[in-house]
Amino acid sequence: MSSFLKLTGQIFACRRCDENWGFSSPSPEAGYFKFPPVIGKTENAQLLFVGINPRISDSNRWLHKHLMKNKASFLGFSANRVHDKPYIASVGQESHYRLHVEFINKAFGRNCPFEQVAAVTEIFLCATSNSRNLPYPESPCADLYFGEVIRLTKPRVIVAVGARVVNYFKTRQHGYWAGSQLFLKFIDRDVPVATIPHPGDPNLSESQKIEQVLSVAAETRALLQISSPRI
Fold first, then answer.
1. Architecture of domain 3-223
2. How confident is the model over 165-179, as a mean pLDDT?
3. What pTM value is reported for the model?
4. What would the mean pLDDT of 71-100 be, rounded to a whole number?
5. Three-state SS string across 199-211, please?
6. Which is the most buried residue in 35, 98, 119, 146, by most CB within 10 A?
C-alpha cells in the first residue's frame, strides 16, 4: 500500500478530536465528515494551499455524505473530481476556491488545471459549520498529519489562506529569509510561505481580495523561478 493510500485510510476513519469542536459523523462508528488530506496534485506540487477546515452546510451536505460513503469515494476526491467533474476550477463546484483559481491563473496561465500544479489541504481536516469552536492557534490535527502531507506532496511554496493559518504555522518550527519571508522547517526541507486573504474575510471587498491574490501570485512566480505565466 502506498504512503498516500495509507494516510488517506487513516484519516477517513479518524475521530480523535473532541466532537464538541463542532464535528459530526454519518454514524457513531464512522469517522467525522471531512475532506481527504490532499485535493489536487498529490506529489511534487508547485503550490500547496492550506486552509482552516472544510465547511458543512445544507448546500453541500450531499458532498460530505458522498465522500464518507466509502474509502473509494473519499480517495477519489483527492483527484479534484466529484461525479467526474472538477471541484476546484474556473467553473468549479465550490465558490470558496475562487481566489485559489485566480492565483493559479496568474501564476501559471488560464489554461492550467488546478490539479496539474497545486493541491489543497487544511489545518483541521474534519468539517464544521464554522470555525468558532476550533482550538486557536494550535491544531492537534495538523500536528499529527501536516508533516506527512508535506513529505508526500513536496510543495515548492505553501500558500496560507488567511491569518489564522499563518498563526498556526508560527507554532511550528519556522524562520525568516531576509528578515521577512516566512518559511517552515521540515526534516528534509525549508518551504517558503505566501499568504492570501481568506475568501470569507469580512474586512476586505471582493476586488481587494483579488488584488491581493494577484500581487502575491506574481511574487510567488519569483519564488518558483517562473518568469511569466503560460497563456
1. 3-Layer(aba) Sandwich (3.40)
2. 95
3. 0.95
4. 92
5. CCCCCCCHHHHHH
6. 119
